[in-house]
Design a protein that fits this description.
With 515 residues, the chain is an alpha+beta fold. Helix 2 crosses helix 3, helix 10 packs across helix 11 and helix 14 runs antiparallel to helix 15. It has 18 helices and 16 strands.
Length: 515
């Protein structure tokens, strides 16, 4: 079974990292969650298609896919396999590079030798099977290591006295060890992105790369070979012009820098605060910031200077400038299905898209104020964000001028379908459609109501709809509740008798009676 084709969003990210940021093939592969050979393949296809970075504005995802994959990939057979052990020995010599060894290899095999990119890929695959440990020297301004601390302080609810654990975000620069920490109520994507923004502003600049662990917040697919980043996390990297390089699973050496920073924070920041009580997150973070300043000014035990002095001397001059505009945190929901009512759901609210996208899959990007809907990387709808659960936000321009293309989903068709179950079900469906601003907004509820007949039988659904109409609660949720609780099998209580006062005032006792 062939491997699935890369999404065009990930393809664009590969080209951006390689040509805009100048990242290596291996770093680009790690950031995008693909093999180095895949990065090489994407670059080769882009070169063959005559594409350059940045891509032209008129090239959307569909056009990019057509340009890159017009001709299936062809691999030659009968190539001369390089001597990998000899390459490994030669690479230990000073000044010897893979390019030099490849040139010597092609001189020996001018007709049946591999191209340079394939030659390097084969050698790296062979070498990756070796258990080789290397000491990593971090360059100035190169990497920022980030993670959540294992120990969690707590804050006290001043109203109830209940203690609640909070999480502490830790970041450390690779070269100077300058450390940043901040407490958050949770470890969700919003807190994760906010912590990155605050950490970069604390540093006053941006590193070339950010190295997180394979945690679920930032990496949606934690895999040894192909970790996949959260789209919102990737947006942050693009905004700041950096690259995300997740560590390998079960490889503590990859994140030794942040592991040590977490240890220092737990030892010199959280432990001294253990006996203090904090009644708000702000109060706790003020105390953490004071201890962080102390930690960064604390002299090294075996080196001259401190984290701060090394930062000023080494890291700060190498950091890239912060963007003029602060990063706007957004939530992503990918692969969202568009219903027959041409609405896509996000945070339990439904937003319209052009009706031509019915039954297609879209991506949703939401900020605090706006919701954007994208189809194949191109924005097709934008709405003001609503917090009303179960509600609809509909742009009238998205509605079809006629239902000729989707005639099978007209309101009358759905009502007739419901009436095949029974008149009570048909009446409830008709009521749902008539109470919505646009009938299409009631399609989901009606279809869900009709499908209840497959779970509870048509007879029970009819009785439940009759009861819902009697109590004037004609909705999908009400009918479902009646079925779940078995109320459809109980007799309806008779209507209460209205009591009336006698019309003859002579039967009423006056004030004199009580004297």
């Amino acid at each position: 079974m062939p491997a699935p084709r890369l999404t065009m969003r990930k393809t664009r990210e590969i080209l951006r990292l390689r040509h805009e940021l100048g990242r290596s093939t291996r770093e680009t592969g790690r950031s995008c969650g693909v093999a180095a050979s895949t990065v090489v393949d994407v670059e080769a296809r882009a070169l063959a298609a005559g594409l350059s970075w940045p891509l032209a504005a008129e090239i959307d995802d569909a056009e990019l896919e057509r340009l890159l994959y017009r001709v299936p990939e062809q691999r030659g057979k009968g190539k001369a396999l390089p001597d990998f052990e000899a390459i490994y020995r030669e690479m230990k010599r000073s000044g010897v590079t893979l390019e030099l060894l490849w040139q010597e290899y092609r001189a020996r095999h001018p007709e049946d030798g591999y191209a340079y990119s394939r030659y390097c890929d084969l050698y790296r695959q062979w070498r990756g099977a070796l258990d080789v440990t290397m000491r990593i020297e971090h360059r100035a301004g190169e990497k920022l290591f980030v993670d959540w601390a294992g120990k969690k302080p707590s804050i006290v609810d001043p109203a109830t006295g209940e203690e609640k654990d909070v999480s502490v975000f830790v970041a450390a620069l690779g070269a100077s060890d300058l450390t940043y920490a901040e407490a958050f109520t949770d470890e969700k994507i919003g807190a994760w992105l906010t912590a990155h923004v605050h950490a970069l502003e604390f540093l006053g600049g941006v590193t070339e790369a950010v190295v997180p662990d394979n945690l679920k917040t930032g990496v949606t697919k934690a895999c040894f070979y192909e970790p996949d980043l959260n789209p919102a996390y990737r947006d942050l990297a693009e905004h700041y012009g950096t690259v995300i390089l997740p560590t390998r699973v079960a490889s503590p050496r990859d994140k030794a820098k942040v592991e040590n920073a977490v240890l220092q924070v737990e030892r010199w920041v959280l432990a001294p605060l253990r006996d203090q009580r904090f009644f708000s997150l702000l109060e706790l973070n003020v105390a953490i910031r004071e201890r962080i300043e102390w930690l960064n000014d604390r002299p090294f035990s075996r080196l001259t200077g401190s984290r701060r002095s090394h930062f000023v001397e080494i890291d700060r001059p190498a950091l890239r400038a912060l963007p003029e505009k602060r990063f706007e945190i957004a939530e992503w929901k990918t692969n969202v299905g568009v219903g027959i009512d041409y609405h896509a759901e996000f945070d339990r609210h439904f937003y319209s898209v052009p009706y031509t996208l019915t039954r297609k899959r879209v991506d949703v990007r939401a900020t605090e104020a706006m919701v954007e809907i994208l189809f194949r990387g191109r924005r097709v709808a934008a709405h003001r964000r609503s917090r009303m659960r179960g509600g609809f936000t509909t742009d009238s321009s998205h509605r079809p001028k006629s239902h000729q293309r989707y005639a099978e989903w007209t309101p009358s068709r759905i009502v007739r379908w419901a009436e095949t179950i029974g008149p009570e079900t048909g009446a409830v469906v008709k009521h749902i459609l008539s109470t919505r601003p646009h009938p299409e907004q009631g399609y989901r509820s009606c279809l869900g109501l009709i499908r209840l007949s497959t779970r509870y039988s048509k007879e029970r659904l009819e009785r439940a709809c009759r009861r819902a109409r009697r109590i004037r609660s004609e909705s999908y949720k009400s009918v479902l509740s009646i079925l779940k609780t078995g109320l459809d099998s109980q007799e309806l209580a008779p209507s209460p008798v209205e009591l009336r006062l006698p019309l003859d005032p002579r039967g009423i006792r006056g004030a004199d009676y009580y004297q």
